[in-house]
């Protein structure tokens, strides 16, 4: 029975993208946001495949897939906050600059 099992497709890719999205979410948020969205999107089909036939796949590949998905979701949240923060700083700089203009 163990011989017929296989890895879930894209499980390693999702894990790597999830970890990279956490690393890059602090770079103004855009890179982490994109990588996180890709990681979450790629995890959908393999998760359904495992849930329908768990006996066909290794549990370790499912755990890798879930870990990458969770990392991607966390990175999306952090990236969104970083993007909002950067926009608020940018708007504050513009508002401060406009406040110094003579009328």
Please explain how this structure is put together.
The chain is mainly α. It is 75% helix and 0% strand. The protein is built from four helices and no strands. Helix 1 runs antiparallel to helix 2, helix 1 runs parallel beside helix 4 and helix 2 packs antiparallel against helix 4. The longest helix is centred in the C-terminal third of the chain and has 41 residues. It is rod-shaped, with a radius of gyration of 20 Å. It starts with 10 loop residues before the first helix and ends with a helix.
Mean pLDDT: 91
Strand content: under 5%
How many runs of DSSP E, i.e. beta strands?
A: 0
Rg, alpha carbons: 20 Å
Give the count of helical stretches: 4
Structural class: mainly alpha
The major sheet is characterized as: none
SSE string, helices as H and strands as E = HHHH
What is the end-to-end distance?
81 Å
Level of helix content?
over 70%
Low-pLDDT sequence parts:
none
What does the overall shape look like?
rod-shaped
Summary keywords:
single chain; 4 helices; 103 residues; mainly alpha; rod-shaped; 0% strand
Short description:
The chain is an all-alpha fold and 103 residues long.
Question: Layout of SSEs?
Answer:
Elements: H1 11-24, H2 30-42, H3 44-52, H4 59-99
């Amino acid at each position: 029975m163990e011989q017929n099992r296989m890895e879930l497709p894209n499980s390693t890719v999702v894990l790597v993208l999830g970890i990279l999205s956490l690393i890059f979410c602090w770079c103004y948020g855009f890179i982490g946001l994109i990588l996180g969205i890709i990681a979450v999107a790629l995890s959908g089909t393999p998760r359904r495949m495992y849930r329908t036939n768990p006996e066909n796949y290794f549990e370790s590949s499912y755990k890798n897939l879930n870990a990458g998905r969770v990392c991607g979701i966390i990175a999306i949240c952090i990236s969104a906050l970083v993007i909002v923060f950067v926009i608020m700083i940018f708007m504050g700089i513009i508002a401060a600059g406009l406040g110094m203009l003579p009328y």
